[in-house]
Design a protein that fits this description.
alpha+beta, 6-stranded antiparallel β-sheet, 2 helices
């Protein structure tokens, strides 16, 4: 599901990765957000062993996922002339992550559902 932030209630997320996107024509952020439960399940499935807590090694997984998403999008967009700069994701962990933006431009939310919950890719423009 895709919608503009503010048109639907936001879930409470506990872990996210943020990456800043810069080019000659725009500056944006992409945020990948998960509930702790869903993220630990995803990491457990990826590593084929039960992950019960958000250790530093496990938390780095959300940054790696966002890095792969951004890297793929960057390759496509740069081929089309956007000249996106390289960037490194930052991991955020707290009880109630609500991606915000201080400005008047729209924030696009891409929400993905599963039987264990939802996760989001949030695109914030500045």
């Amino acid at each position: 599901m895709t919608y503009l932030k503010g048109t639907k209630p936001q879930p409470d997320f506990q872990i996210a990765a943020v990456i800043g996107i810069t080019s000659e024509t725009f500056k944006d952020n992409i945020i990948l957000c998960f509930t702790e439960k869903l993220f630990l399940l995803l990491m457990s499935n990826m590593f084929r062993e039960n992950q019960e807590s958000l250790t530093d090694d496990i938390k780095s997984g959300v940054a790696e996922l966002l890095n792969r998403i951004y890297g793929h999008a960057k390759a496509i967009l740069n081929h089309r002339g956007f000249n996106l700069a390289s960037a490194i994701p930052t991991v955020i962990q707290c009880e109630n992550i609500k991606p915000v933006h201080l400005g008047n431009k729209p924030v696009i939310v891409l929400e993905f559902g599963s039987t264990e919950g939802v996760f989001q890719i949030v695109i914030s423009t500045s």
